[in-house]
Amino acid sequence: MDSTINAAAQALASGDVLGALNRVALRNDPPALALHGIAMAQLGDFARAKTLLKTAARRFGRREPVAQARCVVAEAEIALVSRDLAWPPERLEESASILALRGDTRNAAHARCIAARRSLLLGQLDLAQAGLARLDPARLSPMLRASYFLVSAGIHIRRAHAVAARQALAQAHAAALHSAIPALIAEVEAAQVSLSSPVAVLHRGERAEPIGLDGVERLLASDTLVIDTTRNVLRRRDDVIALSSRPILFALLRTLAETWPSDATRETLLRRAFNARQVDESHRGRLRVEIARLRQAIAPLATVSATPNGFRLAVHNAENLAMLASPLDGQNAAVMALLADGESWSSSALALALDVGIRTVQRALTQLQEQQQVQSIGHGRTRRWTMLTAPGFPRTLLLPQAR
């Protein structure tokens, strides 16, 4: 590697993007193209960056597998940042293996961190944890160590482990300060501020109050029966009944919880669960069927009893019932939570992250656009979506559930 390329690489590693560009912008050899692509990615021009990196990888060819693998790792990171979640992760794993076998442990570790971040974004917490387990944070550079602990904090946040998340963020902050990279320090500090903010609204009867992640952790560790509308589950401690794939049953359960300890009328249940405006016998028959299914589904933790006016939720401990709700109103809260990260998302990437159909996401985006909450950029396959304004709340509990 010549001195100019080495100086450009050191400039990129220290966060001096313009200094790196000054050294390689006019060169056309593969190493210069690769560094040029990384610099353009850091400046936000992802399309140009991907083109440069693909050209560099092609010119390196099979005779230089390490250099080619590094280009693939950089391309994978760009795909993650630009929310191209359909980018094939197998290429990243293959490149990480090549780098590890050839002795480039630093870039191999970087590839593992990228893979773990992608798994975290998709809600695959066990896969993200397994990815981190392959790394030793003590042997990582300060920049990679900060990335490692950011992913670790994200896993703990999704699992509502506030103390462990706070410790991981403290370690990430120390590593970021050691790296002296301003953008990385800002990212960690933003995560720390987010962790101290309310993440959900706790409903107990007619009372509602915002709570932070510490409050959520205490609530989930108690004997309280919790209806978690951010996950669409019913839980008490480690006993969890997932209803995310049964929206009608969860809509009935939520309506019953909102009126507890009183009963919910049949008309209210039909309106909330089935959007029925005019009730007839067919609706009442369907309600009886769905209530029977709900009884069967939640039997380990609660039951539903009939009353003269409708139905009432009966829990094993009549004094312990709470409902966790999103700080955002409406059925499109999960979409807005993902858009709140400030990145530009395609509808297909949102569908992958939320594990729902693309038509569902497109309908949600259309509704949010009509409400002037999101905006689109571009057309056709290049169309991306962002929020008009970033909300003042963290989105940790609204992101895809662990699977």
Textual characterization of the structure:
- The chain is α+β, with helices and mostly antiparallel strands and 403 residues long.
- The chain has helices at residues 3-13, 17-24, 30-42, 46-60, 65-81, 89-101, 105-121, 125-133, 142-158, 162-179, 182-195, 213-221, 247-259, 266-274, 281-298, 333-339, 347-354, 358-370; strands spanning 200-204, 207-211, 225-228, 233-236, 239-242, 264-265, 302-306, 310-315, 321-325, 374-377, 384-387.
- It folds into three domains: 3-195, Serine Threonine Protein Phosphatase 5, Tetratricopeptide repeat, CATH 1.25.40; 201-325, Arc Repressor Mutant, subunit A (Orthogonal Bundle); 333-398, Winged helix-like DNA-binding domain superfamily/Winged helix DNA-binding domain (Arc Repressor Mutant, subunit A, Orthogonal Bundle).
- The protein is built from 18 helices and eleven strands.
- It is elongated, with a radius of gyration of 25 Å.
At CATH level 3, the topology of the largest domain is Serine Threonine Protein Phosphatase 5, Tetratricopeptide repeat
How many domain units? 3
Strand ordering within the main sheet = 2-1-9-3-4-5
Q: Strand count, sense and closure of the main sheet?
A: 6 strands, mixed
Structural class: alpha+beta
